[in-house]
Write a structure and sequence with these properties.
Blueprint lengths: L2 H19 L7 H16 L4 H25 L4 H15 L2 H16 L3 H7 L13 H48 L11 H25 L3 H11 L8 H12 L3 E7 L2 E8 L9 H32 L1
Antiparallel strand pairs: 1-2
Helix pairs in contact: 1-4, 1-7, 1-11, 2-3, 2-7, 3-7, 3-8, 4-7, 5-6, 5-7, 5-11, 7-8, 7-10, 7-11, 8-9, 8-10, 8-11, 9-10
Length: 313
């Protein structure tokens, strides 16, 4: 079976598996990678960019090498190749968990239980929940759903289409490393620099595809494009900016503004300033848009892989 068809069948099976099963409660492969990366960090950590770059190379390169070895081991069996691609896709995407957590917070807000919503928010993002009212929590959820649609689904599919199982595992490894060491704390300002920059690079194509598909699948395509063009570059993240701006325009809401992380207040530019303030009902709208974008991304990545293979064969 051709590699493009292996990816098509495997990625579809993996995304369907995520829809039906979600993430495993125990023994998640990404958690296992995180423990391994933490062990490597304990050996390599120095307050130096070079040692941080070595950490990123060892961890992300190791994940890609594992994917390459596994793919080579099953290359003579189409069924095993599809199964491996499906298992890798299921392991690295997280759309169902993203929707479940967002809806859990949205449900608590709809029920008027703001304390329950605050208790659940850290599972989704790093905001300080005690600093937020109900609408502030809803805004944080919508922003997290937008960004994680790219990070947890679309970006992985893009790299799976480009490089198969090694691409899937490598993207998730890079994204996980950024979450672990890519922030600007005193410990990781230098050591995590390489992981953060690598995540920016790996996330670039998925973020743009997510922004495009948000405009295609959202209720206000023109608003999505307008907000993306006007406001994306204002965001401090080169990849979160296009995604959040496009989601904001598509949903007709304002995102950005003042937020708090770990006791540190940030004043971010407003995205889609012409939109209305986010309310609790927008959580479900954002989740549904995320799901539409995810399935469109699968179709687009599969089509691109098939067309590319057809032109080169």
């Amino acid at each position: 079976m051709r590699a493009d068809r292996v990816f098509a069948y495997g990625a579809a099976a993996g995304l369907l598996g995520d829809l039906l099963l979600g993430d495993p409660r125990r023994g998640h492969p990404v958690a296992a990678f995180g423990r391994a990366a933490g062990a490597v960090e304990r050996v390599l950590w120095r307050d130096h960019r070079g040692w941080g770059a070595l950490h990123a190379l060892v961890c992300a390169g190791g994940a890609m090498a594992l994917g390459a070895v596994a793919s080579r081991a099953v290359r003579t069996s189409p069924a095993a190749s599809v199964a491996l691609t499906g298992a890798a896709t299921w392991a690295v995407v997280g759309g169902t968990s993203l929707a479940r957590e967002a809806r859990g917070i949205g449900g608590a807000l709809e029920a008027g239980d703001i304390e329950a919503a605050r208790a659940r928010l850290p599972r989704l993002c790093g905001r300080d929940p005690q600093a937020l009212d109900a609408d502030g929590i809803a805004r944080a959820v919508v922003e997290s759903v937008a960004e994680n649609t790219s990070d947890a689904v679309v970006g992985a599919l893009v790299w799976g289409a480009v490089a198969g199982v090694p691409g899937l595992l490598g993207f998730r490894a890079v994204n996980t490393l950024d979450a672990m060491v890519g922030h600007k704390s005193p410990r990781y300002r230098r050591y995590g620099w390489a992981s953060a920059r690598l995540d920016d690079l790996a996330g670039w194509p998925g973020a743009r595809l997510t922004a495009v598909l948000s405009a295609v699948a959202g209720p206000d395509p023109r608003g999505a494009v307008r907000a993306w063009r006007a406001d994306a570059a204002k965001h401090p993240s080169p990849n979160a900016g296009p995604v959040e701006a496009s989601f904001a325009g598509a949903l007709g809401v304002r995102l950005g503004g003042t937020l708090s992380y770990g006791g540190r207040v940030e004043h971010r530019p407003v995205l889609n300033g012409a939109g209305r303030a986010v309310t609790t009902k927008d959580v479900e709208r954002a989740v549904r848009l995320s799901q539409r974008v995810s399935w469109l991304a699968l179709g687009g990545c599969v089509a691109a892989r098939l067309l590319t293979k057809g032109r080169t064969s």
